[in-house]
Amino acid sequence: MTGTLITVAPTGAESSKADVPALPVTLDELVSTAKECEALGASIIHVHIRDEDGRPTLDQGRLRATVAALRESTGLIIQLSSGGAVTDPEASRLAVLDAAPEMASCTMGTVNFGDDVFMNRWDFIVDLHTRMQERGIVPEYEIFDLGQLTTLQRLLGKHGLPFGGHVHVDLVMGVPGGMPGTAAALVACEQAIRDLPAGTTFSATGIGRGTIPVMLAALSTGGHLRVGMEDTVTYAKGRPVESNMQLVARAVGFAQLAQRPPLTPAQARELLGVPAR
Ligand code: KMH
Ligand code: ZN
User: Fold this and answer.
1) Which long-range contacts (CB under 8 A, 24 or more apart) does 154-158 make?
2) DSSP character for 70?
3) Distance from the CA of 184 to the center of ligand 2, in angstroms?
């Protein structure tokens, strides 16, 4: 087993600053979070941005400014979310790629998302995948349910490998409507990932109470970790998360215990086929 790729997903689109005051929503808050998380051992940042009122946005100017600021201040691999919020239209989600991130997320199917629906039609998935191939953007395929791994297999079979040739998936576990955040579900995914191209890597994140079981299961099956306030706002029963750094530090501690210390951003780039800066 190699070292551990640690992705921080600091903001997401679901929590509000009013409910979660420690959530980074301004560009300054995002950049200082990114720098501190990199110093602790994160190598990728999965980015959702907010507008001046703290609401989720896919505003092109803000996306470009965010990519530029993170590139200037950190060595992290910059992964923009193409998932956005459940209310974002497909055209705005595709336009995220115009901000020229190094990586972008690409979700492998429609899923119930609490009371909402996170819509990802087949033709939209194909559009995202092929545009990323054309533009030299490395995808992270987001998997909310087991069958979405089969959709990924179909996508790669019909439309070819992603830019860089390496396949990396992220298991997002415990969304109400998707697969549960359990070790058993993670192992089922890990088995299915064996049917994907040789060398495929995966990271995993457990929403809410799935956070720790998923982290331990991922480490023990050779997987990588995604942590952050996009997915986890309670550190332990009755204890709100204080910062993204607290979650990254915990993940680094678990990775070290598993004798799989964090990969540097340069090592992560090599693993994922993301060009060196
Ligand atoms: N906010 C969710 C609706 C992604 O970033 O690609 C979608 C999401 C996945 O978070
Ligand atoms: Zn996201």
Assistant:
1) 155/108, 155/125, 155/126, 155/129, 156/196, 156/197, 158/126
2) H
3) 23
254 lines ligand 1 (CB under 6 A): no
Residue 262 contacts residue 6 (beta carbons within 8 Å): yes
Superfamily of domain 6-272: Aldolase class I (3.20.20.70)
Cβ atoms of 148 and 120 within 8 Å: the answer is: no
Q: Are strands 239-240 and 234-236 parallel, antiparallel or unpaired?
A: antiparallel
Q: CA–CA separation, 254 vs 134, rounded Å?
A: 37
User: Where are the chain's structural domains?
Assistant: 6-272
Instruction: Find, among 27, 116, 121, 112, the residue nearest to 72 by Cα.
Output: 27
Q: Which ligand is nearest to the CA of 105?
A: 1
Main-chain phi, psi angles of 162, to 5 degrees: -70, 170
Please state the pTM of the whole predicted model.
0.98
Atom in ligand 1 nearest the alpha carbon of residue 82: 6
pLDDT of the chain, 277 residues: tens digit per residue? 689 999 999 999 999 999 999 999 999 999 999 999 999 999 999 999 999 999 999 999 999 999 999 999 999 999 999 999 999 999 999 999 999 999 999 999 999 999 999 999 999 999 999 999 999 999 999 999 999 999 999 999 999 999 999 999 999 999 999 999 999 999 999 999 999 999 999 999 999 999 999 999 999 999 999 999 999 999 999 999 999 999 999 999 999 999 999 999 999 999 999 999 8
